[in-house]
Amino acid sequence: MKKPLIFCQFLKKEAEQQDFQLYPGELGKRIYNEISKEAWSQWMAKQTMLINENKLSTMNTEHRQFLEQKMINFLFEGKDIDIAGYTPSGQ
After folding, report:
1. GO biological process annotations for this chain's record (predicted)?
2. What is the CATH number of domain 5-77?
3. Residues forming beta bridges with residue 15, ordered by sequence position
4. Count of Cβ atoms closer than 10 Å to residue 81 Cβ
């Protein structure tokens, strides 16, 4: 069975929708309806780097708020994530 397509706000094209809502609340609904599986995967990679490089804890409310703001900036506002201490390979 073919997965449903959505217009992904991040990729600016039609892409495969996520299997289910991965984030809670109204923001989660927006992500499910507007962010593709591929774009979410890109965010998860960035989030992992942010957590590791900044020694964040998802148990900490301030850290979760920081990550949520970075996620909104990345997925909906087209802002790349600057990760202190990270240098892409080949540079």
Report:
1. cellular response to oxidative stress
2. 1.10.3880.10
3. 6
4. 15
Question: SS3 of 16, please?
Answer: strand
Domains in the chain: boundaries: 5-77
Contact (CB, 8 A) for 33 and 53: no
Per-position b or e across 29-62, b if 16+ CB within 10 A of its CB: ebbbebbbeebbeebeebbeebeeeeebeeeeee
Q: What is the pTM of this model?
A: 0.86
Q: Taking the CB of residue 72, how many other CB atoms lie within 10 A of it?
A: 14
Could you tell me if 47 and 58 are in contact, meaning their C-beta atoms sit under 8 angstroms apart? no
Nearest to 32 by CA among 13, 17, 54: 17
Q: pLDDT (tens digit, 9 = 90+) per residue, 43-70?
A: 999 999 999 999 999 999 999 999 999 9
- The identity of residue 24, as a single letter, is P
